[in-house]
Structure formats: C-alpha cells, structure tokens
Amino acid sequence: MNSRMKNPAMVVPEAMHALMALAKATSKGGVPQKTLDLVHLRASQINGCSVCVDMHPRTARKAGESEERLFAVSAWRDTPYFTDAERAALALTECVTRLSDRSDAVPDDVWQEAARHYDETALGTLVMSIGLVNLWNRLNAATRQRVDPNARW
To answer: Is this prediction's pTM over 0.90?
Structure first.
C-alpha cells in the first residue's frame, strides 16, 4: 500500500521547522529523554502509527534503552521495569492520548501522581511532548505513511 501523499509536515511551508522547534524545546524541559522515548512509543502504540512504532524503539535503543523495557511498554502496569515516575508519565500519556475515553479526560489521581514526580515545567513538557507525538501519529495515520525499512533512525 502506498502513502496517500507526502507527510503534511513536509508539504506545508514552515511546518517541519515549527514541529522540530517544539521537539527541541520539549527535549530541554526537565524530563529524562528515556522517559520521553517511552511516552512517544506508548502514544504511538495506542494510535497505531506504524512509522512511529518502528522509529521510537530504534532511536531509544541507540540511546541505551533496554529491549526488555521497550518490549514491555504496552504492558507497563504489569511489568517490573519502570520507575514510579515513568509509570506516572505513561499513565498521563494514555489519558492525554485517549481524551474521549472518559468524561474527565485526565482524572485528578493521574494528574496528581504525575505532579508528585514532575515539577510544573516538566509537566508542561510532558503534556506538550504527548501532544506532539499524537500530532505526528495523526499526520502519519491520516496520510497512510509507511515504514521505510531502510530508514536510519
């Protein structure tokens, strides 16, 4: 199956620049890169974004992430591989990604647990990073972007 079009971020002038600038800003917001990598992978799994589900584990492995943790992200609640802070970030990711699954998109208990582990800047970073990966997932899914087996993530 072919993509419907090039990724919109490649077609709309200045879009890629803006998305990359936001990615750069969120990489400096006080959340460990390993946590952001897990968050990106989990949101991409939920959204069924094949490009991101292929890319994020590859980049995370290159940054030193273990196979066990990457394989376990989809079942993070039931595995021993994640810290309490990472679990809080993953719970927040699931809520922010699945906004319409409940009347209170991000329940207070999920937010409060994240706030126990992250200060306001880091929480803002998490929310923006989750939003950004969801945007990438939606761009890729809507236009049926395909995994490039030769990509060098």
So the answer is: yes
Average pLDDT, the chain: 96
Q: Assign 3-class secondary structure to the chain.
A: CCCCCCCHHHHCCCHHHHHHHHHHHHCCCCCCHHHHHHHHHHHHHHHCCHHHHHHHHHHHHHCCCCHHHHHHHHHHHHCCCCCHHHHHHHHHHHHHHCHHHCCCCCCHHHHHHHHHHCCHHHHHHHHHHHHHHHHHHHHHHHCCCCCCCCCCC
Max CA pair span of the chain: 45
Q: Is residue 1 over pLDDT 90? A: no
Helix axes 120-142, 108-117, angle to 10 degrees: 120
Of all residues in the chain, the percent with pLDDT exceeding 90 is 95
Q: Note the pLDDT of residue 149.
A: 82
